[in-house]
Write a structure and sequence with these properties.
Shape of chain A: globular
Radius of gyration of chain A: 17 Å
CATH topology of chain A: Glutaconate Coenzyme A-transferase
Number of domains of chain A: 1
Largest sheet of chain A: 10 strands, mixed
Helix content of chain B: 10-25%
CATH class of chain B: Alpha Beta
Number of helices of chain B: 6
Shape of chain B: globular
Order of helices and strands of chain B: EHEHEHEHEHEEEEEHEE
CATH architecture of chain B: 3-Layer(aba) Sandwich
Largest sheet of chain B: 9 strands, mixed
Oligomer: heterodimer
Largest interface: A-B, 39 and 47 residues
CATH class of chain A: Alpha Beta
Chain lengths: 217, 215
């Protein structure tokens, strides 16, 4: 299983029946492929859609039905559309049960930086700041390290997305929960040892007595 | 509401004007109006939009034509030309969280001086802004954002100017239609009055100043 698949499959286990969920671009988008059977999840695209469906075949695309990256999507039966004020009212107003976002850094305080690298990449925050501020639950989906550098750090050096503590970090190595006392190691990926996670992590991790493996098949 | 041609509609937009333009990554952008702005060689515009789309798409065409002096948007990441012009100092870019941007526009259209939002508190976004505490929570005061013109893409427009939008092409369109001094609409279909049931009108006709004729 590649890193993205491990992350997406594990986060999909956080989905519950009836949730309204917003998925960011990249690895987070893949979570929709692993919705556990028997539950119905409402996926929101912040450009104005609840009920985002799979990417249609090329000949079946509708140019006015797209995701937040501007790519054609489909809408499932029961979908609805709305303007951007409503879309961000849903997000900021606490109506979105869970958001899954990519990350550049998360620190020991659970702060997320995911929207710019000063002097190198200034794409803009888009909807990320509103999502982290307003969603009931924030899950970060990211690779554990980039170019050999741990992305889980003592203190973010990149500009923060929000001062709200995120709820869960899922990487290809581990599930980590930011708490009021710091970062707690909750699970490891199949075949990954605790020492391996600690070695790959620059931030301090609390390791409880029992650290189960991710329940992904 | 007056019907007009594309070139006449755009002729009323002067160099240096501020424009709100509907669309999200080019979806729901009035392309005919954008193309005409480029053709007429407009300069020094202030562009207020969710994003700057991609090169050759939607408002990305205004960026490529160097028609824009200032951009107020939430995202420019998929248009390298915007970033290149920003680095070269040719274009000023104000990045605003998307939910804040649309609320600043909505506030303008709804007669409010601004809104209080928790988004951006404790980040670089709060720089230079007033912070207020309400019931123990901190908020930023984000001021209303007006424009000279709103360029709106509708799905249906009736002969009076009542509008509907379709799917994710709605996005900023109905919100900007309330926030600008002059509202110019292009519609995919112009239909007789009565074809849009009252309950389905998303932008009421009195908000529309110009409807571009189908040619």
């Amino acid at each position: 299983m590649d890193a993205s698949t491990i992350i997406a499959k594990r986060i999909a286990l956080e989905l519950r029946d009836g949730m309204l969920v917003n998925l960011g671009i990249g690895i987070p988008t893949l979570v929709a492929n692993y919705v556990p059977p028997g539950i119905h999840v409402f996926f929101q695209s912040e450009n104005g859609l609840i009920g985002t469906g799979p990417i249609p075949e090329e000949a079946m695309t509708q140019p006015r039905l797209t995701d937040a990256g501007g790519r054609p999507v489909s809408a499932i039966p029961g979908a609805c559309t709305f303007d951007s004020a409503m879309s961000f009212g849903l997000i900021r107003g606490g109506h979105v049960d869970m958001t899954v976002l990519g990350g550049l850094q998360v620190d020991e305080y659970g702060m997320l930086a995911n929207w710019m690298i000063p002097g190198r990449m200034v794409p803009g925050m888009g909807g990320a700041m509103d999502l982290v501020t307003g969603a009931k639950r924030v899950v970060v989906a990211m690779q554990h390290a980039a170019k050999g550098q741990s992305k889980i750090v003592p203190r973010c050096t990149l500009p923060l997305t929000s001062t709200r503590r995120v709820d869960l970090i899922v990487t290809e190595l581990a599930v980590i929960a930011p708490t009021a006392h710091g970062l707690e190691l909750r699970e490891t990926a199949p075949g990954v040892g605790i020492d391996q996670v600690l070695a790959a992590t620059e931030a301090r991790l609390e390791v409880p007595d029992a650290v189960p493996a991710m329940a992904i098949g | 509401m007056r019907t007009t041609t594309v070139d006449e509609a755009v002729a009323g937009i002067g160099d240096g004007a501020s424009l709100m333009v509907g669309g999200f990554m080019g979806v729901g952008t009035p392309e005919r109006l954008i193309d005409e702005l480029v053709r007429q060689g407009r300069r020094a515009l202030t562009l207020i939009a969710n994003d700057t789309a991609m090169p050759g798409v939607g408002v990305g065409k205004l960026i490529a034509a160097k028609a824009v002096r200032k951009v107020i948007a939430s995202h420019i990441g998929l248009n390298p030309q915007t970033q290149a012009q920003m680095i070269a100092g040719e274009i000023e870019v104000e990045l605003v969280p998307q939910g804040t941007l649309i609320e600043r526009i909505r506030a303008a259209g709804h007669g409010l001086g601004g809104v209080l939002t928790p988004t951006g508190v404790g980040t670089v976004v709060e720089q230079g802004k007033r912070k207020l505490e309400v019931d123990g929570r901190e908020y930023l005061l984000e001021t209303a954002l007006h424009a000279d013109f709103a360029l709106v893409q509708a799905f249906l427009a009736d002969y009076l100017g009542n509008l509907t939008y379709v799917l994710t092409a709605r996005n900023f369109n109905p919100v900007i239609a309330m926030a600008a001094a002059t509202v110019i609409v292009d519609a995919e279909h112009v239909v007789p009055v009565g074809m849009i049931p009252p309950d389905q009108v998303m932008t009421p006709a009195p908000l529309v100043d110009f409807l571009v004729a189908r040619t």
